[in-house]
Write a structure and sequence with these properties.
The protein is mostly beta strands and 416 residues long. The protein contains three helices and 27 strands. The strands form six sheets. A six-stranded mixed β-sheet has the order 10-14-19-16-17-13, with no helix packed on it. Strands 1-3-8-5-6 form a five-stranded mixed β-sheet. β16 and β17 form a beta hairpin.
């Protein structure tokens, strides 16, 4: 009687084990009844095992073996570029030659002919415990099928070798420039929390791109309205997996894109137009962070508290010596403001200026503007006669004035 009871218990235990393995392997191996997965901003992987799965007949090889055991999943896109992540893969799944493959289809039909013509992407294991498939241009609200399989027609050996976990991670909200997060500038750094976890790389062409020779592999976007001409963008508290950081301050993110500043963890722009919206691209190169903690960072935009230069207004114009040879005088536009009381004359669209004056020694005078920061753009000179309270525009030049008619002994004002 005792032997019979022991046998019954053993059979029950065996049945329970078989049921457990079967449930793990069969829950998502049929394309017509795929396991539903909900994408999220953070990855919460669920474990599976491919050891006892069946194969789907009639499929092309794609990036693996058409006769491989496979699992099927389905998800509804909540972003345009989610990442399908396999992790904690056993040794057989991680094998670079015959291990795991992950594939996405732009259909929910399980008809082989339809699947074969609607594969969007397929990725292969490289020997490590993780495998990521980064998608792009998905339609939000549309369902997609995901297939996990291998490059082998069989799945033999220890069951643990065929373990893997799966999750689908959405890209950050500001992964695309069109969804850039608005941040406000301040005279002190007020941080906004950001993250590179799940970020993808934007396709963008930038004039004078400082990263052209060392392009990034992922980026996120911010925007701000310039309150001063020379703000500084700073990122700090970088996660340990956010490597080779870069900041770019850009005019926009479509069409012709102009770069105003570039830096690693800090970038200061020169002579932005107050009231204009600018875009910030924060990027990194190398392997994408695999955890939210590893991809974290803070970002802020600070405005300078530098006072305007001494010669910001006509009344404080710096005296220059007029000579038969070019005698240069240093100058700076940092903190300069626009002199609204100055007559426009032949210049339009100026947003800041500084002033100089000289006494003419000849009937013709040349005024030359040289040097200057790379982003001191649309440079121009304007020559005035009269006094600060009653100026008359004589001529303009961009960037120089040549052969201006002047009266020896008369004082003239130069607006830069």
């Amino acid at each position: 009687m005792m032997n019979q009871a022991r046998t019954t218990i053993q059979l029950l235990l065996l049945t329970a084990v078989l049921h457990l393995v079967g449930a793990q392997a069969l829950a998502q191996e049929n394309c017509t009844a795929p396991m539903a997965v909900t994408p999220s901003l953070t990855c919460s992987p669920i474990g599976y095992n491919l050891r006892f799965a069946a194969s789907t007949t009639g499929l092309s090889n794609f990036c693996g073996n058409s006769g491989s055991p496979d699992h099927w999943f389905v998800f509804t896109a909540q972003s345009t570029g989610p990442i399908i992540r396999l992790s904690s893969m056993g040794s057989s799944m991680a094998n670079a030659a015959n291990g795991a493959r992950v594939q996405i289809f732009s259909t929910t039909s399980c008809t082989p002919a339809i699947l074969n013509t609607n594969s969007l992407a397929c990725a292969s294991a490289s020997g490590g415990a993780n495998l990521n498939l980064t998608t792009s241009n998905l339609s939000i609200g549309t369902q997609y099928l995901v297939r996990v399989f291998t490059n082998s027609a069989t799945a033999g050996g220890a069951t643990a070798n065929w373990n893997y976990s799966l999750c689908i991670q959405d890209a950050p909200t500001n992964d695309l420039c069109a969804n850039a997060i608005t941040i406000n500038s301040n005279i002190t750094c007020i941080n906004t929390t950001g993250n590179m976890y799940g970020a993808t790389l934007s396709a963008i062409t930038i004039n004078g791109d400082c990263l052209a020779s060392t392009p990034p592999t992922y980026d996120v976007w911010y925007r701000f309205v310039a309150q001063t001409a020379n703000p500084t963008v700073t990122i700090s508290s970088l996660g340990g997996q956010f490597l080779n950081p870069n900041i770019q301050i850009l005019s926009n993110c479509t069409g012709t894109v102009t770069q105003f500043a570039c830096g690693t963890t800090s970038a200061t722009a020169d002579y932005l137009s107050v009231g204009t919206t600018y875009f910030i691209r924060v990027s990194g190169s190398g392997t994408l962070p695999t955890t939210a903690a590893g991809g974290a960072f803070d970002i802020c935009v600070t405005d300078p508290t530098t006072t305007a230069p001494f010669n910001d207004e006509c009344a404080n114009a710096i005296n220059m010596q007029s000579s038969s040879s070019c005698l240069t005088a240093p100058g700076s536009m940092a903190g300069a403001t626009l002199s609204v009381s100055a007559p426009i004359g032949c210049t339009t669209g100026a947003t800041y200026d500084v002033w100089y004056k000289f006494t003419a020694v000849s009937s013709t005078t040349n005024i030359t503007l040289s040097g200057g920061a790379n982003n001191f753009t649309n440079r121009g000179l304007q020559l005035f006669s009269g006094t600060c309270g009653a100026l008359t525009s004589v001529t303009c030049g961009a960037p120089n004035i040549t052969g201006a008619a002047t009266t020896p002994g008369q004082t003239y004002y130069v607006r830069v």
